[in-house]
């Protein structure tokens, strides 16, 4: 009898291409469940038992386990590395928000986020820390939860929010069309995408065999991506809504993990340290960096 298919949560953007190749070309036995609203939504889903594995943003997963008062065992552990390179978050405002001229002019404004605990939420604190706004407690006047990318774009034009952050290439076509305006950018101070498994699959020193198989298939998908760039561009530009030039430009900036199994402890520790400095996590509260990573 064949093993039960893994339910894998993912963000349906250009970064999902090696996962798509793993299923299409290498027989990955999985049900791929899209989460356009991002990592924060996947955390809710994996804790609710709706997905088995999630592929999402490092800072979202780490923040989810590092917060004070998480229930039970936290619901998941970091088990693998998907993308080695940092993520470029574009900082956007409304097309006609002439009062917003630069990143410093965002101080004390209303930040739009998809969910509390999402990458867009966490990176707001990292931005405030980098700008020196945390010291005088005047970083943002309000955090407006807007669920998805479309709502975020609408909110900065209506004035419900003043700005939001989202991945650069996903945002770029809306700059090109004039719907929203770019204010700046910020890079994650860590490798950007990690793989998590529910604690039912990553329990203590045991890792479910289906997750091991997932790593093998993903590694094959990454190799296929690296060796078949034209196919990748075709998929990204026809199925995921990016232009061909943007897809090709993105390929120059991204490096997927050749070996997806495993997570470097120092990457998680660095992320925890930055999130504590930014005030997202508190020293002595929540799970330690070491405990977040599966020891299988």
UniProtKB/TrEMBL annotation:
All copies of domain Ca3427-like PBP, residue ranges: 89-186
Compartmental location: Periplasm
InterPro entries xrefs: Ca3427-like_PBP2
Highest taxon listed in the record's lineage: Eukaryota
Keyword Repeat included in the entry's annotation: no
Pfam families linked: PBP2_Ca3427_like
Signal found in the keyword field: yes
Cellular component terms (Gene Ontology): periplasmic space
Segments crossing the lipid bilayer: none
Keyword entries, A-Z: Signal
Family membership: Belongs to the bacterial solute-binding protein SsuA/TauA family.
Protein name: Ca3427-like PBP 2 domain-containing protein
């Amino acid at each position: 009898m064949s093993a039960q298919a893994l339910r894998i949560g993912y963000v349906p953007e250009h970064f999902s291409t090696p996962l798509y190749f793993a299923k299409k070309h290498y027989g990955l036995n999985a049900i791929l469940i899209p989460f356009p609203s991002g990592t924060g939504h996947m955390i809710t889903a994996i804790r609710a038992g709706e997905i088995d594995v999630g592929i999402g943003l490092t800072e979202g997963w780490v923040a989810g386990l590092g917060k004070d008062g998480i229930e039970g065992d936290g619901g998941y552990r970091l088990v693998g590395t998907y993308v080695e390179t940092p993520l470029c978050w574009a900082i956007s405002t409304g097309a006609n928000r002439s009062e917003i001229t630069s990143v410093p002019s965002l101080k004390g404004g209303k930040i739009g986020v998809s969910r509390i605990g999402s990458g867009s939420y966490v990176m707001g604190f990292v931005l405030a820390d980098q700008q020196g706004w945390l010291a005088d407690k005047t970083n943002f006047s309000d955090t407006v939860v807007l669920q998805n990318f479309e709502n975020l774009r609408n909110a900065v034009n209506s004035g419900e929010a003043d700005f939001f952050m989202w991945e650069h290439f996903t945002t770029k076509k809306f700059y090109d069309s004039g719907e929203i305006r770019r204010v700046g950018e910020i890079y994650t101070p860590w490798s950007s995408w990690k793989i998590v498994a529910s604690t039912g699959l990553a329990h203590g020193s045991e890792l479910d065999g289906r997750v091991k198989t997932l790593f093998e298939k993903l590694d094959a998908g990454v190799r296929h991506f690296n060796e078949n760039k034209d196919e990748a561009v075709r998929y990204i530009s026809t199925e995921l809504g990016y232009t061909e030039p943007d897809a090709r430009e993105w390929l120059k900036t991204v490096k997927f993990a050749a070996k997806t199994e495993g997570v470097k402890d120092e990457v998680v520790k660095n992320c925890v340290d930055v999130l504590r400095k930014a005030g997202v996590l508190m020293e002595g509260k929540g799970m330690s960096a070491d405990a977040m990573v599966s020891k299988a």
